[in-house]
Amino acid sequence: MSSKKESSFKNMLITLLVITVVAGLALGGVYNVTKEPIALAKKAKAEAAIKAVIPEFDTLQVYKVALEDGTDSLVFNQGYKDGQLVGTAIETFSKNGYDPTPIRVMVGFSATGEIINSEVIEQKETPGLGSKMASDKFKNQFNGKNPTDFMLKVKKDGGNVDAITAATISSRAYCEALQKAHSTYLKDGGSK
Amino acid sequence: MNQVANFTKGLLKENPVFVLLLGMCPTLGVTSTAVNGLGMGLATTFVLVCSNIVVSLVKNQIPDKVRIPSFIVIIASFVTIVELSMQAFVPALFESLGLFIPLIVVNCIVLGRAEGFASKNNVFSSTLDGLGMGLGFALALTILGSVREILGNGSFFGMRFMEGDAILIFVLAPGAFIVLGYLIALINKLRKTA
Hints:
The complex is a heterodimer.
Chain A lengths: L8 H45 L5 E8 L6 E9 L2 E11 L8 E7 L5 E8 L13 H4 L28 H20 L5
Antiparallel strand pairs in A: 1-2, 2-3, 3-4, 4-5
Chain B lengths: L2 H6 L15 H6 L4 H25 L8 H23 L1 H7 L10 H11 L4 H31 L1 E2 L2 E2 L12 H21 L1
Antiparallel strand pairs in B: 1-2
């Protein structure tokens, strides 16, 4: 064993300084290398969700629409193919799930105002219960329905939606997110 | 102690989860599926090996009174590197492990090996120690995750082998305690007879 450095003020200061500077430089380097892949991965995920809920498009028009109560805004992604509107993918959310983390859902509306498909982007509901909102069995019941005559509420609350067994709160939150998207969609001019 | 023992002791004899009972927070938190357990275990292994190497390299340059802050900075740097890399290259796994990746910094196994082993031994032994401990941790988490996934979700590494609902409690937090308890009992029994 070679001798250890003495714990003098100067030695401690120099040691900590060197370590933090080296660590800072290393992290800066890694950050620069990974910055682009991280941004790409996030973008790819959002794009995959859009592609899953509206038919094939060639151009995408992205804009924000404020919520009815003005507290927040939703991102609208209008997909066009050969100049024709094929669908609007709306990124919506609900803060009333079982977990404090908001549920984020991408939902696609056809030009006539029906729900084409919906896809969960982020949720931290109870695994095995509320997390089943991402399963086809639950979310496919909305497909092809127009929320103006299809009540976006669970049957317990007098609506048309079959809730997930033992996860009524999560099901309600999902309905709320879709409802929010639909009312904002109508406010924005609906199917135009 | 010979070099082989430095490596193998982490796998069973001094397994961080089943025998030392260290790092219980990620152990109970992320092991709802086998993939999560394996991912967490490998991320921790990487940090453990890197921090053990660096700590044993610089151990003589660090004055005793500031060794803990120095170790923490070294460990935190490697954890951040892992976090950024996972976010960039395996975003799906990063999302399911979430908060537990940055929390590797305060995992007592990592600091424990830096303080208890790497700061007293040479680079080669420390590397083997980190690798053994890390793989032992990964092995334990994968076993725990597999059992919970099989019983609670009816699948293994994401492949479903049964229809419908399984025993839900095993995916939830209480299931982690139950499975861990039985696994520790089993390991203790095996160690006694062996």
